[in-house]
Design brief:
Length: about 300
């Protein structure tokens, strides 16, 4: 049985991968930021040298797009240089590196889902720093994978869908951007879809890892509210209004307008078909309701 290390196991995706894979009998070691702080000289070597592993999945990253825009040095250090150190370490010891990346490596000037052969053109520091990480991993050796995800949601950390439901529980008006398109990615589905790459799928390269379909943030949020209403949550509003991205003054970094990703390569390599994003969001919302995460007064507890 291959042993897998997950870096960034305290995060939204990393925590889900560790838990889901362990439940399926995988031998997984999770390293959160306390166990491995990236950007500290020599840390990657010294921590990883103490662990036997065959596959390493790097979910750690500086993920706040606007923070990255104002802290470029830190962004390139964590998302680029640290990814390089990790990939070279994996290559040296004959292990596979699976590096998690993003749809934000694209500029968004398209109207059909990006494929793995499309040329990345980052338009933000976050996107450029993640692209630097991708290039480092791909050039470290032929057995490594870059798995791009987008609009990630799941039970381990609050994300857009949870925020929309929380707001609808306490506010009578909820708006979301209706002129930006992508594909949501459910962390629990990612665990199933990525698992074949721990052993079975040979080779390496780029992979688009998401649910299927395309939506705006407004449609994504509206569907979350439809599911919350169906589950009986006492919403103060059941409608998400649409606003243009240009009206969001808090956005510092430029964001791609259209960054949906096609998953045909993933399906053909794994023979697993990702489910439509609406089914995944519904599963998540119903699961959160069942777990008692939301109540009428204060949203996520
Ligand atoms: N979230 C999305 O919508 C989205 C979209 C596209 C791509 N992605 C990519 O998906 C991957 C996973 O993201 P996520 O959604 O799970 O985000 P997340 O919840 O922010 O997880 C990232 C993890 O990285 C850790 N980290 C940050 N800086 C670190 C450092 N210097 N040393 C060690 N660990 C550090 C964070 O630690 P703390 O827990 O201490 O913060 C966090 O646990 C990332 O590569 C991200 O770029 C995410």
């Amino acid at each position: 049985m291959a042993k897998t290390v997950v870096i960034g196991s305290g995060g939204r995706l990393g925590a889900a991968l560790v838990r889901a894979w362990r439940a399926l009998g995988e031998d997984v070691v999770g390293l959160d930021r306390a166990a491995l702080s990236l950007g500290t000289d020599g840390k990657v070597e010294s921590v990883l040298n103490e662990i036997q592993f065959d596959v390493l999945v790097n979910c750690a990253a500086l993920t706040n797009v606007d923070y990255c825009e104002t802290h470029p040095e830190e962004a390139f250090k964590i998302n680029g240089e640290a990814a390089n150190d990790i990939a070279l370490h994996c290559e040296d010891r004959g292990a596979r590196c699976i590096h998690i990346s993003t749809d934000y490596v694209f500029d968004g000037n398209t109207s059909k889902p990006y494929t793995e052969t499309d040329t990345p053109v980052p338009i933000s520091v976050y996107g450029a720093s993640k692209r630097m990480g991708e290039e480092a991993v791909l050039s470290a050796g032929a057995r490594h994978w870059v798995a791009r995800v987008s609009w990630v949601f799941g039970p381990d950390r609050v994300s857009f869908v949870d925020q929309v439901v929380s707001r609808a529980l306490s506010e009578s008006r909820v708006d979301a951007v209706d002129d930006k398109w992508a594909t949501p990615t459910y962390t629990l589905d990612s665990a199933t879809l990525l698992r074949p790459f721990l052993r079975r799928v040979e080779g390496g390269g780029i992979l688009h890892l998401a649910n299927t379909g395309v939506c705006t943030w407004q449609e994504y949020g509206q569907w979350a509210l439809d599911c919350a209403k169906e589950a009986g949550l006492p919403l103060k509003t059941s409608t998400v209004g649409g606003v243009p991205m240009s009206s969001i003054k808090a956005f510092i970094a430029k964001r791609p307008i259209y960054s949906a990703m096609g998953t045909e390569k993933l399906a053909s390599l794994t023979r697993l078909q990702p489910r439509p994003w609406k089914e995944a969001v519904r599963a998540h919302v119903l699961d959160q309701v069942q777990r008692g995460v939301w109540n009428a007064s204060n949203g996520p507890s």
